[in-house]
Structures are given as C-alpha cells and as structure tokens.
Amino acid sequence: MNSSKVCLECGGKMIPARIDKTFHIGDKEIEIRGLSGFKCERCGEVSYNIQDAKMIQNIINALNSNNEVDVLNLEETAEFLRVSNQTVYNMIKDGRLKAHKVGREWRFVKGDILAYMNAYSNESFVAMAAKGGKVDVDDLKAIQNELKERESSGDK
Question: Mean of the pLDDT values across residues 87-113?
C-alpha cells in the first residue's frame, strides 16, 4: 500500500506526518498537537486522517455552540416521547431513561432521551410506549400482521 498522496493544491507529494495546529474559532484559540495526516513536501499543505478530522470538527462545533444543554422537565419529556407522565416514571424506575432529581423535580437531558430513542428499533420503542416497556411477542406479531393486512388492502 502506498502511504503517500498527491497534493490537491500543487500536485506535490504528500507524506505521512504528525501535525501540530492552532485553530482560531471566533475569539477562541485552541492548539492541538500530534494530529495524524499528510503534509505536502512542496507547498506545506496538510490533510488530516478521518478520525482526527472528525475530532477537529467536533471541537469546532463545541466551541461554536452556545454551550446550553437542553433540559426538559417531566411533562416536557412525556410530551416529547408522546407518552404519559406515568410511563416516564416507569422508565426512570426501571433504568430505561436517565434522569436527574433537582429538588423535588425530575430533569432530563434531551441528548440522553435522543440517545435512548436511537438505541431502540421503531418496534421496541412503540411497544415501550404502549405497554410501559414490556412487550408480549404474540401481541406485537398480531399488531404487525394487522398493519400488513391493512396496508395490502388499502385501509389506513
């Protein structure tokens, strides 16, 4: 495997390199040392490996963000999930949903809720909402069959 590339700027040879770079983002400055990538022997142009490029992008996004965390209360969380307040309590109790008690109130980080939702397939998420987290396989199959029948017959 050839470890060199051609520079897109000047056509020179790009060689593997460890790169130290200072980034200026708005009024902020951050220096990152030891980035992996390639550097052009002729013009000095650099390119980063994909992992380091993603890390740089994440850092820039974090510095550009307003650094506010989206925090929801119990009612907002239930509305966001389209479930009852009791279902949210059940999800806290059995550990499906990460929550923080502030005084006498529950608070939820929206990112945690989204991560939870992304961790489950649509079927299990619908089942969770409908049955408080417990799904009867026979019921789920019956619902799926009914939906397939309605879809094929044109009923909605």
Answer: 91
